[in-house]
Amino acid sequence: MATLYVTLQGKGGVGKRYLTAAFPQWLVEQGRSVACIDTDTLNPTLLQYAPLKATHLKLSQGHPPVTM
Prior knowledge:
There is one protein chain. Helix content is 21%, strand content 6%. It is mainly alpha-helical. The longest helix is centred in the N-terminal third of the chain and has 14 residues, at 16-29. The two termini are 13 Å apart. It has a two-stranded parallel ribbon with strand order 1-2. The chain is globular and about 35 Å long.
């Protein structure tokens, strides 16, 4: 069974980007398989980390379903 981790917080400056980028990198280092999806319309941070092979899901533009 897969585990889904979601980073949510409306307030800025609480470390969302750092945690959201560092945690999947740590999982990969532990030998875990990860699938990263970035839904941030203004700053898709995960796309900057090539090893994570993140997918940008544009929710505001009627993106088709993602299969993993």
